[in-house]
Amino acid sequence: MAEVEETLKRIQNQKGVQGIIIVNAEGIPIKTTLDNPTTVQYAGLIHQLVIKARSTVRDMDPQNDLTFLRIRSKKNEIMVAPDKEYFLIVIQNPTD
Amino acid sequence: MEITYVYTKKRSEFGSQCNFTDRPVELLVDILPDPTVAASFIQRDLCNMPVQCVQQMSEHEINTERLETETEGVNHVEGGWPKDVNPQEQEQTTRFRKKVEKEESYIASLTILGSLMEHCIKQNNAINIYEEYYEEEEEVQESTEEPPTAKTLHVLKDPNDIKRTATSLSWHPDGGRKLAVSYCCLEFQRASKDMSFHSYIWNLEKPNKPQMTLKPSSPIVCLDYNPKDFHVLAGGCYNGQVAYWDTRKGSQPVEMSIIEQSHRDPVYKVIWLQSKTGTDCFSASTDGQVLWWDIRKLSEPTERLILDISKKGTLDGAAGATSLEFETTMPTKFMVGTENGMVIACNRKGKTPAEKISSTFCGHHGPVYALRRNPFYPKNFLSVADWIARIWSEDTKESSIMWTRYHMARLSDGCWSPTRPSQKEPTLSVKVCDEALYSLRVQDNGHILACGSQLGTATLLEISSGLCSLQRNEKALANEMFERESKREKILEARRRELRLKERGRSDQGKEEEPKEAEPQESTEDLVARAEKEFFQAIESERKKREQEQQKLQTPISTVKVEEAGKLVS
Question: How far apart are CA B85 and CA B402, in angstroms?
Fold first, then answer.
């Protein structure tokens, strides 16, 4: 429990990080540092995207699996670390 | 029946050697050629005959029905919660969350995910992987490597059944993603009753349907976006009224000017003025008036100017105005192009109507359809009339400093490319569509050109970068060119003035002789006859030149054949 908190705190303190969301396999946000409407939107949209990406990777090669997903946009970067049960979503503003 | 052949040989001759004897030639059969038979045969030139033993196949093209797409947004609502948890209740959700956080699998997976994520975040912070290297060095302009081309981007069609001409186009001042097009049937009294009066605003990202409709009480002839307030548009109507719209408020005009105070003829051009309030605009029409309006009060124009060269100040002698130009850097001066080919430069601050008209430029043979100032050299401007486009400098009033050749078709609009200040010959003439093009407008960054046509379709062309990006020494070159031409014109003007003075001197002496008075009356008729003759001569010579060129195209082929035959023979 404390380790989780510590990890999240470390991530939060990195340069450029705007928000963290932890989502479970059904798309319910468990923990978040952003406001509710934003969280709900991110959770819903990214959840679908991760499932699609994962199925794409596994369709090409069934032995393969998705390890990380990065979406780079003009304003920021959305990084998703998927797991069997949970996703960790971090929104960062890449420094430049 | 039995056919038998008896062959006899003496027994004593069996086994003896053969005695061959010579025998003279004996003609057995002689079949002579019969030319009459040849008549039933047809001679064939072809001696190669291809034969193929393949399946017969045919090619067929189909075009599917256009798929109508629309972009819409989706609003997300919370979901996915298990049945016993009510998402609206804060307590239940927090309780659920706390329960999840206590699970072991959560902790374990989070630690792994956390370290993975940290790695990536640090990676991001360490180096910008999408960094542009060598950004300072500008890309070397490949000058004239590619032949200039223009590509059609979109075609915006008039959604109504009865097609009207797209008379004027105005780009949205902020980024140019929207285009306002006004439609109107300009043929005198040919507008049918069913013709709709609407004009449209198109969004370039959705070229199938107009984004917004403007519904005036009479068709709009010209439109302009307010450069300060992007939601406001001013339009001049066919019946002479001026109206303005606010796109936030809807399709009906916010206000229209009163008919009695407006123009008596269709308003051909409306332009916004640069003023502190941002609400001034002015309009010109063929009834010879230029009216200034403040859109907050459209019941009467703030100022009126009658375009009369003889400075009488009445509407009778006024020349109808067909185009207007106003440059934001010179707020008190503006220019009007008239129906009889003159361009009048006026000063708004003049006190009497006489002072207002500061100078006139003659030289066109027909109505001036478009007037534009060069955005780089405000002293020079372009005027477009029937077959020719002329570039003028403000200082030389006698004639234009440069002009293009007489084109085949009538030019109806023209404007400067905002990024390329020098354009001498038309480097590219593009056949945009089959019907006549009516109006042209370049987008602010110079890449996209919108043309409106007679049947109401507006086509967007993207011009190749060779034509629209500035080259290094181009500004200097253009500057030199303009200065050179204006110097030339000034010299010509000075000479002409001298000649005139001399003639006046001579005619003063000759005034005592009366017969000379009779001459001026005849000379106008002579002049007319001469002008006609010259005109026809010019056309004839052009035609002959064209025929010669065509012949030239054919003759090279025949000479080549002769050469080849000569080689074969030798």
Answer: 81
